[in-house]
Design a protein that fits this description.
This protein has 201 residues and is an alpha/beta fold. The protein has two domains: 129 residues, Rossmann fold (3-Layer(aba) Sandwich), CATH 3.40.50; 58 residues, no CATH class. Helix content is 51%, strand content 13%. The chain has a five-stranded parallel beta sheet, with helices on both faces. Strands 2-3 form a two-stranded antiparallel sheet. The protein is globular, with a radius of gyration of 17 Å. The N and C termini lie close together (9 Å).
């Protein structure tokens, strides 16, 4: 029997940043949305394995004349993660049933390390697949190919749960099954969407 593998996204699915990104950055700038938008673009190479994010953040703050410690900004914004216990409990149930459950997330190196070590995701999941370590990010086919190669799993044996429609569409195009879900929709809906596929024997 082919073992099935569930791939869970992080932000929006497994965890969230209380108060939102703009709300956190508002303590440092009058234009939090603009700063965050710039940083999403400038962060992109670090998410694909191009180096650490903290120097990028420091440069962006200097460019805008924001004279604060970038490490403090990082701690207040990117490191302020709250996991959803209901999702972690579900992950434990699935793993006990024999399903492989893996984190599959676009992250820069500092946040990947924090999530794996400080939040102990390395214990909660069979594998943590971070884009910065794979050298490819969702929604590219390379991301899914590299995950599948590492797991020794065909695309049809993998199911992605992601809050991004772009990512779930890309996963389906790569041959995976996928469900679009955000934690605000509740764990009961996630179970209804995914368990019939994962637990069918």
């Amino acid at each position: 029997m082919t073992r099935l593998h569930l791939l869970l996204d992080a932000d929006g699915v497994l965890q969230h940043r209380p108060g939102g990104w703009d709300g956190a950055l508002a303590a440092y700038t009058d234009d939090p949305a603009g700063l965050f938008g710039d940083l999403v673009i400038e962060e992109a190479p670090t998410v694909r394995g191009g180096g650490p994010f903290l120097p990028v953040l420091a440069k962006a703050l200097r460019k805008r004349g924001i004279r604060v410690d970038p490490e403090q900004v990082y701690a207040d914004v990117w490191a302020a993660i709250r996991p959803h216990q209901a999702v972690l409990d579900w992950v434990a149930e699935l793993r006990a049933s024999g399903v492989g459950v893996h984190l599959a997330s676009n992250q820069h190196p500092e946040r990947a390390r924090l999530m794996r070590e400080q939040l102990d995701y390395a214990t909660h999941f069979d594998t943590c697949f971070f884009s910065c370590e794979l050298g490819a990010a969702k929604p590219t086919p390379e991301f899914f190919d590299r995950v599948g190669t590492t797991l020794g799993a065909a695309p049809g044996a993998m199911v992605l749960v992601d809050d991004s429609v772009t990512n779930t569409r890309a996963a389906r195009a790569a041959g995976l099954r996928a469900a679009t879900w955000h934690h605000r929709q509740g764990i009961a809906r996630l179970r209804r969407q995914v368990e019939p596929v994962l637990l069918a024997r």
